[in-house]
Amino acid sequence: MRATPLLISAILLIPGLAGLLGWPAAGVARVQGPCSDCHTIHNSRQGEPMTYFFDRDEGQLVTGGDPNPALLVTGCVGCHLGVNSAGSMPYVLSLEEPDYGLTGTGGNTRAAGSFYWVAHGQDRKGHNVTGLADWDRQHGYTPPGGTVLPAQLTCAGAAGCHGSPEVATPATALQGSHHQEKSGWRDGGTVATSYRLLQGVQGLGDPSFEWQPSASQRNKYYGYHRSGSSDPAPDTISGFCARCHGDFHQATGDGSPWLRHPVDFDLSQGEPLEEYLGYNGGDGTANPYNVAVPLATADTSDQVPATIEISAGDQAVVMCLSCHRAHGSPVDAMLRWDYKSWPANGYNGCGVCHSSKN
Ligand code: HEC
Ligand code: HEC
Ligand code: HEC
Ligand code: HEC
Ligand code: HEC
Protein backbone atom coordinates (compact mmCIF):
# COMPACT_ATOMS: atom_id res chain seq x y z
CA MET A 1 0.00 0.00 0.00
CA ARG A 2 1.49 3.32 -0.96
CA ALA A 3 1.43 6.04 1.64
CA THR A 4 -0.10 9.33 0.45
CA PRO A 5 2.43 9.84 -2.37
CA LEU A 6 0.67 12.87 -3.79
CA LEU A 7 1.49 15.05 -0.82
CA ILE A 8 5.24 14.87 -1.34
CA SER A 9 6.91 17.85 -2.96
CA ALA A 10 3.68 19.48 -3.99
CA ILE A 11 5.45 22.79 -4.50
CA LEU A 12 7.48 21.44 -7.39
CA LEU A 13 4.44 21.24 -9.56
CA ILE A 14 2.79 24.58 -8.93
CA PRO A 15 2.30 26.28 -11.34
CA GLY A 16 3.52 23.16 -13.13
CA LEU A 17 2.42 22.27 -16.57
CA ALA A 18 -0.58 24.55 -16.51
CA GLY A 19 1.76 27.53 -16.37
CA LEU A 20 3.86 26.07 -19.13
CA LEU A 21 1.04 25.36 -21.50
CA GLY A 22 -1.42 27.65 -23.18
CA TRP A 23 -4.64 26.80 -21.38
CA PRO A 24 -7.74 28.21 -22.98
CA ALA A 25 -9.42 31.29 -21.59
CA ALA A 26 -12.90 30.89 -20.16
CA GLY A 27 -15.47 30.25 -22.85
CA VAL A 28 -13.15 28.77 -25.50
CA ALA A 29 -14.36 25.22 -25.88
CA ARG A 30 -11.30 23.73 -27.58
CA VAL A 31 -7.53 23.74 -27.09
CA GLN A 32 -5.61 26.68 -28.54
CA GLY A 33 -2.02 27.93 -28.61
CA PRO A 34 1.30 26.93 -30.18
CA CYS A 35 1.51 23.26 -31.12
CA SER A 36 4.76 22.92 -29.22
CA ASP A 37 3.02 23.76 -25.95
CA CYS A 38 1.42 20.36 -26.03
CA HIS A 39 3.19 18.33 -28.73
CA THR A 40 6.82 17.39 -29.25
CA ILE A 41 8.03 16.19 -32.61
CA HIS A 42 11.19 14.30 -31.72
CA ASN A 43 10.70 13.90 -27.98
CA SER A 44 13.84 15.94 -27.40
CA ARG A 45 14.57 19.60 -26.83
CA GLN A 46 18.12 20.84 -26.17
CA GLY A 47 19.08 17.25 -25.46
CA GLU A 48 16.42 16.80 -22.74
CA PRO A 49 13.48 14.47 -23.10
CA MET A 50 10.35 16.45 -23.74
CA THR A 51 7.77 14.20 -22.17
CA TYR A 52 6.39 14.62 -18.70
CA PHE A 53 4.53 12.07 -16.71
CA PHE A 54 2.86 12.11 -13.35
CA ASP A 55 5.02 10.09 -10.95
CA ARG A 56 2.76 8.85 -8.18
CA ASP A 57 5.62 7.93 -5.87
CA GLU A 58 7.25 11.32 -6.28
CA GLY A 59 3.92 13.12 -6.31
CA GLN A 60 4.95 15.41 -9.14
CA LEU A 61 5.41 15.73 -12.87
CA VAL A 62 8.83 14.57 -13.99
CA THR A 63 10.50 14.48 -17.39
CA GLY A 64 11.33 11.22 -19.11
CA GLY A 65 9.35 8.13 -19.85
CA ASP A 66 8.19 6.81 -23.17
CA PRO A 67 6.97 9.15 -25.90
CA ASN A 68 3.22 9.71 -25.60
CA PRO A 69 0.69 8.86 -28.28
CA ALA A 70 -0.25 11.79 -30.57
CA LEU A 71 3.28 13.12 -29.85
CA LEU A 72 1.96 14.76 -26.71
CA VAL A 73 4.25 16.18 -24.04
CA THR A 74 2.30 14.36 -21.35
CA GLY A 75 -0.66 12.06 -20.70
CA CYS A 76 -4.20 12.81 -19.57
CA VAL A 77 -3.26 13.12 -15.90
CA GLY A 78 -0.28 15.38 -16.56
CA CYS A 79 -2.43 18.00 -18.26
CA HIS A 80 -5.52 17.61 -16.11
CA LEU A 81 -3.63 17.86 -12.79
CA GLY A 82 -3.94 21.12 -10.89
CA VAL A 83 -6.08 23.29 -8.64
CA ASN A 84 -9.31 24.46 -10.25
CA SER A 85 -10.23 28.11 -10.45
CA ALA A 86 -12.77 30.04 -12.48
CA GLY A 87 -12.15 29.42 -16.17
CA SER A 88 -12.47 26.45 -18.45
CA MET A 89 -9.48 24.24 -17.69
CA PRO A 90 -10.89 21.12 -16.05
CA TYR A 91 -8.55 19.66 -13.42
CA VAL A 92 -9.59 16.26 -12.16
CA LEU A 93 -6.82 15.72 -9.59
CA SER A 94 -4.82 18.06 -7.39
CA LEU A 95 -1.87 17.60 -5.07
CA GLU A 96 -3.61 19.30 -2.17
CA GLU A 97 -7.02 18.17 -0.96
CA PRO A 98 -9.76 19.96 -2.88
CA ASP A 99 -12.38 22.03 -1.08
CA TYR A 100 -15.48 19.88 -1.63
CA GLY A 101 -17.71 21.18 1.15
CA LEU A 102 -20.98 19.34 1.80
CA THR A 103 -22.11 18.97 -1.80
CA GLY A 104 -19.15 19.83 -4.05
CA THR A 105 -20.89 22.86 -5.50
CA GLY A 106 -19.30 25.83 -3.73
CA GLY A 107 -15.59 24.97 -3.46
CA ASN A 108 -12.98 24.16 -6.09
CA THR A 109 -14.11 20.87 -7.58
CA ARG A 110 -15.96 20.55 -10.88
CA ALA A 111 -18.92 18.52 -12.08
CA ALA A 112 -17.22 15.13 -11.96
CA GLY A 113 -15.81 15.70 -8.47
CA SER A 114 -12.14 14.74 -8.02
CA PHE A 115 -9.91 11.68 -8.06
CA TYR A 116 -8.03 13.07 -5.04
CA TRP A 117 -9.54 10.70 -2.46
CA VAL A 118 -9.25 7.51 -4.50
CA ALA A 119 -5.68 8.52 -5.39
CA HIS A 120 -5.00 8.46 -1.65
CA GLY A 121 -5.97 4.84 -1.33
CA GLN A 122 -9.63 5.34 -0.45
CA ASP A 123 -10.95 2.86 -2.98
CA ARG A 124 -14.64 3.45 -2.35
CA LYS A 125 -14.38 7.17 -3.05
CA GLY A 126 -13.71 7.07 -6.76
CA HIS A 127 -12.99 5.20 -9.96
CA ASN A 128 -9.51 3.66 -9.60
CA VAL A 129 -7.98 4.96 -12.83
CA THR A 130 -4.53 3.81 -13.98
CA GLY A 131 -1.80 6.36 -13.41
CA LEU A 132 -3.49 8.03 -10.48
CA ALA A 133 -4.67 5.21 -8.25
CA ASP A 134 -3.91 1.58 -7.57
CA TRP A 135 -6.44 -0.99 -8.67
CA ASP A 136 -9.52 -1.36 -6.47
CA ARG A 137 -8.91 -4.03 -3.82
CA GLN A 138 -12.59 -4.86 -3.47
CA HIS A 139 -13.84 -4.75 -7.04
CA GLY A 140 -10.67 -5.48 -9.01
CA TYR A 141 -11.32 -4.73 -12.68
CA THR A 142 -15.01 -5.64 -12.40
CA PRO A 143 -17.61 -2.85 -12.41
CA PRO A 144 -20.35 -3.83 -9.93
CA GLY A 145 -23.28 -5.02 -12.06
CA GLY A 146 -21.14 -5.55 -15.16
CA THR A 147 -18.44 -7.79 -16.60
CA VAL A 148 -14.70 -7.65 -15.98
CA LEU A 149 -12.71 -5.08 -18.02
CA PRO A 150 -9.59 -6.07 -20.03
CA ALA A 151 -7.39 -4.03 -17.67
CA GLN A 152 -7.48 -1.50 -14.84
CA LEU A 153 -9.65 1.49 -15.75
CA THR A 154 -8.05 4.12 -17.99
CA CYS A 155 -9.25 7.67 -18.71
CA ALA A 156 -10.28 6.77 -22.25
CA GLY A 157 -10.50 3.90 -24.72
CA ALA A 158 -11.36 0.22 -24.39
CA ALA A 159 -10.83 0.04 -20.63
CA GLY A 160 -11.96 3.60 -20.04
CA CYS A 161 -14.76 6.13 -20.16
CA HIS A 162 -13.87 8.98 -22.57
CA GLY A 163 -13.51 8.63 -26.31
CA SER A 164 -14.17 5.57 -28.39
CA PRO A 165 -14.35 2.24 -26.52
CA GLU A 166 -13.24 0.56 -29.75
CA VAL A 167 -9.75 2.10 -29.58
CA ALA A 168 -7.23 0.71 -27.09
CA THR A 169 -4.90 3.72 -26.59
CA PRO A 170 -6.49 6.52 -24.53
CA ALA A 171 -5.10 9.50 -26.50
CA THR A 172 -5.94 7.87 -29.84
CA ALA A 173 -9.44 7.04 -28.61
CA LEU A 174 -10.13 10.78 -28.41
CA GLN A 175 -9.66 11.11 -32.19
CA GLY A 176 -8.54 14.74 -32.28
CA SER A 177 -11.54 15.91 -30.28
CA HIS A 178 -9.44 18.32 -28.19
CA HIS A 179 -9.08 20.44 -31.31
CA GLN A 180 -12.74 20.66 -32.15
CA GLU A 181 -15.32 23.16 -31.03
CA LYS A 182 -17.48 21.81 -28.22
CA SER A 183 -20.17 24.39 -27.47
CA GLY A 184 -23.94 23.88 -27.80
CA TRP A 185 -25.99 20.72 -27.44
CA ARG A 186 -23.90 17.58 -28.05
CA ASP A 187 -25.77 15.05 -30.19
CA GLY A 188 -23.42 12.11 -29.57
CA GLY A 189 -22.72 11.56 -33.28
CA THR A 190 -18.92 11.48 -33.00
CA VAL A 191 -16.47 11.62 -30.08
CA ALA A 192 -16.05 15.38 -30.52
CA THR A 193 -19.80 15.96 -30.68
CA SER A 194 -20.49 13.78 -27.64
CA TYR A 195 -21.10 15.12 -24.19
CA ARG A 196 -17.66 15.45 -22.48
CA LEU A 197 -16.13 13.27 -25.20
CA LEU A 198 -18.10 10.27 -23.90
CA GLN A 199 -18.82 8.61 -27.22
CA GLY A 200 -22.49 8.50 -28.14
CA VAL A 201 -23.76 10.43 -25.11
CA GLN A 202 -25.95 13.52 -25.53
CA GLY A 203 -25.99 16.59 -23.28
CA LEU A 204 -24.99 20.21 -22.86
CA GLY A 205 -21.78 20.95 -20.98
CA ASP A 206 -21.39 24.06 -18.88
CA PRO A 207 -18.29 25.82 -20.37
CA SER A 208 -16.85 26.17 -16.85
CA PHE A 209 -17.48 22.46 -16.08
CA GLU A 210 -19.72 23.53 -13.18
CA TRP A 211 -17.24 25.76 -11.45
CA GLN A 212 -19.43 26.90 -8.52
CA PRO A 213 -22.60 26.17 -10.48
CA SER A 214 -26.04 27.69 -10.12
CA ALA A 215 -29.50 26.69 -11.32
CA SER A 216 -28.91 28.49 -14.64
CA GLN A 217 -25.14 27.84 -14.96
CA ARG A 218 -24.76 24.09 -15.02
CA ASN A 219 -24.55 20.97 -17.12
CA LYS A 220 -27.67 19.65 -18.78
CA TYR A 221 -27.80 15.84 -18.68
CA TYR A 222 -29.80 13.83 -21.17
CA GLY A 223 -32.37 11.24 -20.10
CA TYR A 224 -36.00 10.31 -20.30
CA HIS A 225 -38.53 8.12 -18.55
CA ARG A 226 -38.12 4.55 -19.67
CA SER A 227 -40.85 2.02 -19.71
CA GLY A 228 -40.85 -1.29 -17.94
CA SER A 229 -37.63 -3.24 -17.75
CA SER A 230 -35.87 -1.81 -20.82
CA ASP A 231 -32.21 -0.85 -20.36
CA PRO A 232 -31.22 2.82 -20.15
CA ALA A 233 -30.65 4.11 -23.70
CA PRO A 234 -26.95 4.45 -24.66
CA ASP A 235 -27.26 8.16 -25.50
CA THR A 236 -28.43 8.99 -21.95
CA ILE A 237 -25.98 9.63 -19.14
CA SER A 238 -27.33 6.64 -17.18
CA GLY A 239 -26.93 4.51 -20.31
CA PHE A 240 -23.28 5.55 -20.37
CA CYS A 241 -22.73 4.24 -16.83
CA ALA A 242 -24.72 1.13 -17.72
CA ARG A 243 -22.19 0.38 -20.49
CA CYS A 244 -19.98 -1.00 -17.72
CA HIS A 245 -22.33 -1.37 -14.76
CA GLY A 246 -25.24 -2.99 -16.51
CA ASP A 247 -28.56 -1.95 -15.16
CA PHE A 248 -27.05 -1.72 -11.69
CA HIS A 249 -29.89 -0.19 -9.70
CA GLN A 250 -32.54 -2.16 -11.55
CA ALA A 251 -31.02 -5.54 -10.77
CA THR A 252 -33.34 -7.91 -8.98
CA GLY A 253 -32.69 -10.62 -6.49
CA ASP A 254 -30.48 -8.59 -4.16
CA GLY A 255 -31.73 -7.62 -0.75
CA SER A 256 -30.39 -4.08 -0.76
CA PRO A 257 -32.92 -1.33 -1.51
CA TRP A 258 -30.17 0.68 -3.28
CA LEU A 259 -29.95 -1.97 -5.94
CA ARG A 260 -33.56 -1.21 -6.76
CA HIS A 261 -33.57 2.58 -6.73
CA PRO A 262 -35.24 3.71 -9.97
CA VAL A 263 -33.00 5.26 -12.63
CA ASP A 264 -34.20 6.96 -15.82
CA PHE A 265 -37.46 7.45 -13.98
CA ASP A 266 -39.27 10.77 -14.38
CA LEU A 267 -40.48 12.51 -11.24
CA SER A 268 -43.86 13.16 -12.89
CA GLN A 269 -44.45 9.39 -12.77
CA GLY A 270 -43.72 9.01 -9.06
CA GLU A 271 -46.24 7.97 -6.42
CA PRO A 272 -47.36 9.69 -4.35
CA LEU A 273 -47.07 12.40 -6.98
CA GLU A 274 -47.17 15.37 -4.57
CA GLU A 275 -43.97 14.10 -2.99
CA TYR A 276 -42.03 14.41 -6.26
CA LEU A 277 -43.80 17.53 -7.54
CA GLY A 278 -42.33 19.06 -4.39
CA TYR A 279 -38.72 18.56 -5.63
CA ASN A 280 -36.54 21.23 -4.06
CA GLY A 281 -39.45 23.15 -2.56
CA GLY A 282 -41.59 23.72 -5.66
CA ASP A 283 -45.09 22.70 -6.65
CA GLY A 284 -44.40 20.94 -9.95
CA THR A 285 -44.88 23.95 -12.22
CA ALA A 286 -41.65 25.91 -11.69
CA ASN A 287 -39.35 24.09 -9.28
CA PRO A 288 -35.97 25.70 -8.68
CA TYR A 289 -33.26 23.35 -10.03
CA ASN A 290 -30.89 22.10 -7.31
CA VAL A 291 -27.33 21.62 -8.61
CA ALA A 292 -26.49 19.35 -5.67
CA VAL A 293 -29.18 16.88 -6.83
CA PRO A 294 -29.18 17.16 -10.62
CA LEU A 295 -31.86 15.75 -12.89
CA ALA A 296 -31.66 14.68 -16.53
CA THR A 297 -34.02 16.01 -19.20
CA ALA A 298 -35.26 15.08 -22.66
CA ASP A 299 -35.11 18.77 -23.69
CA THR A 300 -32.28 19.03 -26.23
CA SER A 301 -32.33 22.82 -26.62
CA ASP A 302 -29.37 25.02 -25.66
CA GLN A 303 -31.44 26.71 -22.94
CA VAL A 304 -30.45 26.09 -19.33
CA PRO A 305 -33.58 26.93 -17.35
CA ALA A 306 -33.26 27.85 -13.67
CA THR A 307 -36.64 26.26 -12.97
CA ILE A 308 -38.22 23.08 -14.29
CA GLU A 309 -41.84 22.20 -14.94
CA ILE A 310 -42.00 18.72 -13.47
CA SER A 311 -45.66 18.16 -14.29
CA ALA A 312 -44.87 18.58 -18.02
CA GLY A 313 -42.94 15.30 -17.95
CA ASP A 314 -39.40 14.21 -18.98
CA GLN A 315 -37.79 17.33 -17.49
CA ALA A 316 -36.96 15.77 -14.12
CA VAL A 317 -35.40 12.38 -14.69
CA VAL A 318 -33.58 10.49 -11.92
CA MET A 319 -30.17 9.38 -13.27
CA CYS A 320 -26.93 7.89 -11.94
CA LEU A 321 -25.43 11.35 -11.46
CA SER A 322 -28.39 12.51 -9.34
CA CYS A 323 -26.60 10.70 -6.50
CA HIS A 324 -23.06 9.90 -7.75
CA ARG A 325 -20.03 11.88 -8.96
CA ALA A 326 -18.39 10.40 -12.05
CA HIS A 327 -14.72 10.67 -10.98
CA GLY A 328 -14.87 10.66 -7.20
CA SER A 329 -15.90 12.44 -4.01
CA PRO A 330 -14.98 12.39 -0.30
CA VAL A 331 -18.00 10.12 0.32
CA ASP A 332 -18.13 6.31 -0.01
CA ALA A 333 -19.59 4.98 -3.29
CA MET A 334 -18.60 8.32 -4.86
CA LEU A 335 -21.87 9.78 -3.67
CA ARG A 336 -22.42 13.49 -4.15
CA TRP A 337 -23.30 13.97 -0.49
CA ASP A 338 -23.11 12.11 2.78
CA TYR A 339 -26.76 11.39 3.50
CA LYS A 340 -25.87 8.97 6.27
CA SER A 341 -24.35 11.70 8.47
CA TRP A 342 -27.38 13.95 8.06
CA PRO A 343 -28.83 15.74 10.05
CA ALA A 344 -25.75 16.24 12.29
CA ASN A 345 -23.50 16.72 9.26
CA GLY A 346 -23.80 15.81 5.63
CA TYR A 347 -26.63 16.77 3.32
CA ASN A 348 -30.07 15.30 2.83
CA GLY A 349 -29.89 14.94 -0.95
CA CYS A 350 -32.49 12.19 -0.79
CA GLY A 351 -34.96 14.62 0.72
CA VAL A 352 -34.68 17.03 -2.21
CA CYS A 353 -36.73 14.53 -4.27
CA HIS A 354 -38.40 12.72 -1.38
CA SER A 355 -39.79 16.07 -0.36
CA SER A 356 -42.03 14.79 2.40
CA LYS A 357 -38.99 13.23 4.09
CA ASN A 358 -36.72 16.23 4.53
C1 HEC B 1 -1.49 18.49 -23.63
C2 HEC B 1 -2.49 18.70 -22.61
C3 HEC B 1 -3.68 17.76 -22.58
C4 HEC B 1 -3.64 16.40 -22.63
C5 HEC B 1 -2.45 15.47 -22.77
C6 HEC B 1 -5.01 15.97 -22.45
N1 HEC B 1 -5.85 17.03 -22.32
FE1 HEC B 1 -7.88 16.98 -22.08
N2 HEC B 1 -7.97 18.99 -22.18
C7 HEC B 1 -6.88 19.84 -22.28
C8 HEC B 1 -7.36 21.20 -22.32
C9 HEC B 1 -6.48 22.44 -22.41
C10 HEC B 1 -8.78 21.14 -22.25
C11 HEC B 1 -9.78 22.29 -22.18
C12 HEC B 1 -10.30 22.67 -23.50
C13 HEC B 1 -11.60 23.42 -23.28
O1 HEC B 1 -11.60 24.49 -22.70
O2 HEC B 1 -12.62 22.89 -23.69
C14 HEC B 1 -9.11 19.75 -22.17
C15 HEC B 1 -10.43 19.27 -22.10
C16 HEC B 1 -10.77 17.95 -21.90
C17 HEC B 1 -12.10 17.45 -21.73
C18 HEC B 1 -13.39 18.26 -21.75
C19 HEC B 1 -13.97 18.32 -23.12
C20 HEC B 1 -15.25 19.14 -23.13
O3 HEC B 1 -16.32 18.57 -22.96
O4 HEC B 1 -15.17 20.35 -23.28
C21 HEC B 1 -12.02 16.11 -21.55
C22 HEC B 1 -13.16 15.16 -21.32
C23 HEC B 1 -10.62 15.77 -21.62
N3 HEC B 1 -9.89 16.90 -21.83
C24 HEC B 1 -10.13 14.49 -21.47
C25 HEC B 1 -8.81 14.12 -21.71
C26 HEC B 1 -8.33 12.74 -21.74
C27 HEC B 1 -9.17 11.53 -21.48
C28 HEC B 1 -6.99 12.79 -22.02
C29 HEC B 1 -6.02 11.64 -22.22
C30 HEC B 1 -6.34 10.74 -23.32
C31 HEC B 1 -6.65 14.19 -22.16
N4 HEC B 1 -7.78 14.96 -21.96
C32 HEC B 1 -5.38 14.65 -22.44
C33 HEC B 1 -5.56 19.47 -22.33
C34 HEC B 1 -5.07 18.17 -22.41
C1 HEC C 1 -3.29 22.83 -25.22
C2 HEC C 1 -2.76 21.64 -25.80
C3 HEC C 1 -2.66 21.47 -27.31
C4 HEC C 1 -2.20 22.36 -28.26
C5 HEC C 1 -1.74 23.78 -28.06
C6 HEC C 1 -2.19 21.65 -29.53
N1 HEC C 1 -2.66 20.38 -29.35
FE1 HEC C 1 -2.83 18.91 -30.77
N2 HEC C 1 -3.63 17.64 -29.38
C7 HEC C 1 -3.76 17.93 -28.04
C8 HEC C 1 -4.27 16.74 -27.35
C9 HEC C 1 -4.58 16.65 -25.86
C10 HEC C 1 -4.40 15.74 -28.33
C11 HEC C 1 -4.75 14.27 -28.13
C12 HEC C 1 -6.15 14.04 -27.74
C13 HEC C 1 -7.08 14.29 -28.87
O1 HEC C 1 -6.80 13.85 -29.99
O2 HEC C 1 -8.11 14.93 -28.61
C14 HEC C 1 -4.00 16.35 -29.60
C15 HEC C 1 -4.01 15.68 -30.82
C16 HEC C 1 -3.46 16.17 -31.98
C17 HEC C 1 -3.34 15.43 -33.20
C18 HEC C 1 -3.76 14.00 -33.42
C19 HEC C 1 -5.25 13.86 -33.46
C20 HEC C 1 -5.83 14.31 -34.76
O3 HEC C 1 -6.42 15.42 -34.79
O4 HEC C 1 -5.71 13.60 -35.73
C21 HEC C 1 -2.76 16.27 -34.12
C22 HEC C 1 -2.41 15.94 -35.55
C23 HEC C 1 -2.51 17.52 -33.46
N3 HEC C 1 -2.95 17.44 -32.17
C24 HEC C 1 -1.91 18.62 -34.04
C25 HEC C 1 -1.72 19.85 -33.44
C26 HEC C 1 -1.18 21.02 -34.09
C27 HEC C 1 -0.72 21.06 -35.54
C28 HEC C 1 -1.16 22.03 -33.17
C29 HEC C 1 -0.75 23.50 -33.38
C30 HEC C 1 -1.53 24.19 -34.40
C31 HEC C 1 -1.66 21.49 -31.93
N4 HEC C 1 -2.01 20.17 -32.13
C32 HEC C 1 -1.77 22.20 -30.75
C33 HEC C 1 -3.46 19.09 -27.40
C34 HEC C 1 -2.96 20.23 -28.01
C1 HEC D 1 -15.43 1.89 -18.52
C2 HEC D 1 -16.24 1.23 -17.53
C3 HEC D 1 -16.97 2.07 -16.50
C4 HEC D 1 -17.86 3.10 -16.73
C5 HEC D 1 -18.31 3.67 -18.07
C6 HEC D 1 -18.35 3.50 -15.44
N1 HEC D 1 -17.76 2.76 -14.45
FE1 HEC D 1 -18.15 2.84 -12.46
N2 HEC D 1 -16.76 1.40 -12.11
C7 HEC D 1 -16.04 0.74 -13.07
C8 HEC D 1 -15.16 -0.21 -12.43
C9 HEC D 1 -14.15 -1.13 -13.13
C10 HEC D 1 -15.39 -0.12 -11.04
C11 HEC D 1 -14.75 -0.93 -9.92
C12 HEC D 1 -13.34 -0.49 -9.67
C13 HEC D 1 -13.24 0.92 -9.22
O1 HEC D 1 -13.95 1.35 -8.28
O2 HEC D 1 -12.46 1.64 -9.84
C14 HEC D 1 -16.41 0.92 -10.87
C15 HEC D 1 -16.91 1.32 -9.66
C16 HEC D 1 -17.95 2.21 -9.49
C17 HEC D 1 -18.55 2.57 -8.23
C18 HEC D 1 -18.15 2.02 -6.89
C19 HEC D 1 -16.94 2.72 -6.36
C20 HEC D 1 -16.38 1.98 -5.18
O3 HEC D 1 -15.24 1.56 -5.26
O4 HEC D 1 -17.11 1.81 -4.20
C21 HEC D 1 -19.53 3.47 -8.48
C22 HEC D 1 -20.44 4.14 -7.47
C23 HEC D 1 -19.53 3.70 -9.89
N3 HEC D 1 -18.57 2.92 -10.48
C24 HEC D 1 -20.40 4.56 -10.53
C25 HEC D 1 -20.35 4.86 -11.88
C26 HEC D 1 -21.16 5.88 -12.52
C27 HEC D 1 -22.18 6.75 -11.81
C28 HEC D 1 -20.84 5.87 -13.83
C29 HEC D 1 -21.36 6.78 -14.92
C30 HEC D 1 -21.10 8.20 -14.71
C31 HEC D 1 -19.84 4.84 -14.03
N4 HEC D 1 -19.56 4.27 -12.83
C32 HEC D 1 -19.27 4.52 -15.25
C33 HEC D 1 -16.13 0.92 -14.43
C34 HEC D 1 -16.91 1.86 -15.06
C1 HEC E 1 -33.43 12.68 -8.14
C2 HEC E 1 -34.55 12.35 -7.28
C3 HEC E 1 -34.33 11.30 -6.22
C4 HEC E 1 -33.29 11.22 -5.34
C5 HEC E 1 -32.09 12.15 -5.21
C6 HEC E 1 -33.53 10.09 -4.52
N1 HEC E 1 -34.69 9.48 -4.89
FE1 HEC E 1 -35.47 7.79 -4.08
N2 HEC E 1 -36.92 7.76 -5.51
C7 HEC E 1 -37.12 8.73 -6.45
C8 HEC E 1 -38.24 8.35 -7.29
C9 HEC E 1 -38.79 9.15 -8.44
C10 HEC E 1 -38.69 7.10 -6.81
C11 HEC E 1 -39.80 6.21 -7.41
C12 HEC E 1 -41.14 6.53 -6.90
C13 HEC E 1 -42.15 5.56 -7.49
O1 HEC E 1 -41.79 4.42 -7.82
O2 HEC E 1 -43.30 5.95 -7.62
C14 HEC E 1 -37.84 6.77 -5.68
C15 HEC E 1 -37.96 5.61 -4.92
C16 HEC E 1 -37.27 5.37 -3.74
C17 HEC E 1 -37.50 4.26 -2.87
C18 HEC E 1 -38.50 3.17 -3.10
C19 HEC E 1 -37.83 2.10 -3.96
C20 HEC E 1 -38.78 1.04 -4.42
O3 HEC E 1 -38.30 -0.01 -4.86
O4 HEC E 1 -39.98 1.27 -4.37
C21 HEC E 1 -36.62 4.38 -1.81
C22 HEC E 1 -36.47 3.48 -0.62
C23 HEC E 1 -35.84 5.58 -2.05
N3 HEC E 1 -36.25 6.14 -3.24
C24 HEC E 1 -34.83 6.05 -1.22
C25 HEC E 1 -33.96 7.06 -1.53
C26 HEC E 1 -32.79 7.41 -0.75
C27 HEC E 1 -32.38 6.79 0.55
C28 HEC E 1 -32.17 8.39 -1.43
C29 HEC E 1 -30.86 9.06 -1.10
C30 HEC E 1 -29.70 8.17 -1.08
C31 HEC E 1 -32.98 8.69 -2.60
N4 HEC E 1 -34.03 7.84 -2.63
C32 HEC E 1 -32.69 9.68 -3.50
C33 HEC E 1 -36.39 9.89 -6.61
C34 HEC E 1 -35.21 10.19 -5.94
C1 HEC F 1 -31.05 7.70 -5.70
C2 HEC F 1 -29.62 7.72 -5.58
C3 HEC F 1 -28.82 6.83 -6.51
C4 HEC F 1 -28.91 6.73 -7.88
C5 HEC F 1 -29.88 7.45 -8.79
C6 HEC F 1 -27.89 5.80 -8.29
N1 HEC F 1 -27.21 5.35 -7.19
FE1 HEC F 1 -25.69 4.01 -7.18
N2 HEC F 1 -25.64 4.08 -5.15
C7 HEC F 1 -26.43 4.88 -4.35
C8 HEC F 1 -26.10 4.65 -2.97
C9 HEC F 1 -26.74 5.34 -1.77
C10 HEC F 1 -25.06 3.69 -2.95
C11 HEC F 1 -24.32 3.14 -1.74
C12 HEC F 1 -24.94 1.92 -1.17
C13 HEC F 1 -24.17 1.51 0.07
O1 HEC F 1 -23.14 2.11 0.39
O2 HEC F 1 -24.62 0.56 0.70
C14 HEC F 1 -24.80 3.36 -4.35
C15 HEC F 1 -23.84 2.44 -4.76
C16 HEC F 1 -23.49 2.21 -6.09
C17 HEC F 1 -22.41 1.38 -6.52
C18 HEC F 1 -21.40 0.68 -5.63
C19 HEC F 1 -21.70 -0.72 -5.31
C20 HEC F 1 -20.56 -1.35 -4.53
O3 HEC F 1 -20.57 -2.58 -4.46
O4 HEC F 1 -19.67 -0.66 -4.03
C21 HEC F 1 -22.40 1.40 -7.88
C22 HEC F 1 -21.46 0.67 -8.81
C23 HEC F 1 -23.47 2.26 -8.30
N3 HEC F 1 -24.12 2.73 -7.18
C24 HEC F 1 -23.76 2.55 -9.61
C25 HEC F 1 -24.84 3.30 -10.02
C26 HEC F 1 -25.21 3.46 -11.39
C27 HEC F 1 -24.49 2.84 -12.57
C28 HEC F 1 -26.33 4.24 -11.40
C29 HEC F 1 -27.17 4.62 -12.60
C30 HEC F 1 -27.61 3.47 -13.43
C31 HEC F 1 -26.61 4.61 -10.02
N4 HEC F 1 -25.69 4.01 -9.23
C32 HEC F 1 -27.66 5.42 -9.60
C33 HEC F 1 -27.36 5.77 -4.78
C34 HEC F 1 -27.75 5.95 -6.09
From TrEMBL:
Pfam families: Paired_CXXCH_1. Residues 319-357 form the Doubled CXXCH motif domain. InterPro entries: Multihaem_cyt_sf (IPR036280), Paired_CXXCH_1 (IPR010177). It comes from the Bacteria. This is Doubled CXXCH domain protein.
